[in-house]
Amino acid sequence: MMKKYFIVGSIVATLSLSLVTGVAFATHSWNGYHWARTSNPFTLKVGDNVSSGWDSYLVTTSSDWSASSVLDTTIVAGLGGKNCRATNGRVEVCNRKYGNNGWLGVAQIWINGGGHITQGVVKMNDTYFNTATYNTPAWRNLVMCQEVGHTLGLNHQDENFDNANLNTCMDYTNNPESNQHPNQHDYDELVAMYAQLDATTTLGSTVLPKGNGSEVNLDDPSTWGKSLRKDSKGNNSLFGKDLGNGEKLFTFVTWAE
C-alpha cells in the first residue's frame, strides 16, 4: 500500500480564514496576516536550530526570501531548544526525527488580535527526509522555502497537485524540481502585504506571553482540531482549533503520495 505523506503549515490566529481550494490565488497572503513593523525593509530573525545537513538549505531559503524589497531574513543562533519552542518576535527553524506521523514539514505561526504575526516555528521531519524519496535537494528546498514563506504571512499560490508547476515553492506539486524557490508573484505579494506601515512592531522580543498556545504539542496531527477544508485529492488540508485567550490554531496540510 502506498503511504501518504504531507507538508504542514500552521497558524495561530484571532481572525477567520477565507476557505478557497484548488485554484491559483490572485493574491496569496494568509488573510492579510503580517509582522507589525514601523519601517521597510524590516529584518526578521530566523533562529538556526538545524543540523549540519540542513544548514545549506536554510541559507538558501533565507537568501531567497531576502531578495524581497520589503524584508530581509537574517540567520541567528537558535533559541528553540530540543522541543523547538517558539520565541516571541522571531522564527525558530528546527529539524529532527519527529516520527512516522505523516508530515514532512510544519510551520507554526501565532497572530495577535490586530492580525499581526508575533512568532513562528518551522520544523523539518527527518523521519521522512532520511528516506530515498525525500532526501533530495529539490524536496528539501521546497519544504524549507514553503514553511518559512508561511511564517512571512504567505499562503499557497496553487493547491492542485496536478496543475503545471508555477515555479514557486508556494505551489502544491508532486514534482518539486522547478518549485524550489519563490517566484516574482511571491515577491509582489509581499510588497502588497507590507505596503502599509504599523504604529508598533512585533519583531525582536524574546519574552513569551502567557497562554499564547506555545505549550500545545503541534507535532501530532491529533492536536490540530476540526477539519475545515480538503485539498484537490480529497484529503483534509485545513484544521482549526481554539486555543483560548482569543487565539485559534489553523493547520494547513499538503499531501504527497
Mean pLDDT: 83
Q: Which of globular, elongated, flat, extended, rod-shaped describes the shape?
A: globular
Strand/helix succession? EEEHEEEEHHHEEE
Strand portion: 25-35%
The end-to-end span amounts to 11 Å
The tally of helices reads 4
Please give the CATH architecture: 3-Layer(aba) Sandwich
List unreliable stretches of 5+ residues. 1-6, 13-24
β-strand number: 10
Features:
257 residues, Collagenase (Catalytic Domain), alpha/beta, 10-stranded mixed beta sheet
Report on this model:
The protein has one domain (5-256): 3-Layer(aba) Sandwich (Collagenase (Catalytic Domain)). A hairpin with a 5-residue loop joins strand 8 and strand 9 (236-244). The chain has 257 residues and is of the alpha/beta class. Helix content is 17%, strand content 29%. The protein is globular. Strands 1, 2, 3, 4, 5, 6, 7, 8, 9 and 10 form a 10-stranded mixed β-sheet that branches. It has helices at 52-66, 126-129, 137-151, 184-193; strands at 5-13, 34-35, 42-49, 71-77, 91-96, 103-111, 116-125, 226-230, 236-244, 247-256.
Please give a quick description of this structure.
This protein is α/β, with parallel strands linked by helices and 257 residues long. It contains four helices and ten strands; from the N terminus they run βββαββββαααβββ. Strands 1, 2, 3, 4, 5, 6, 7, 8, 9 and 10 form a ten-stranded mixed beta sheet that branches.
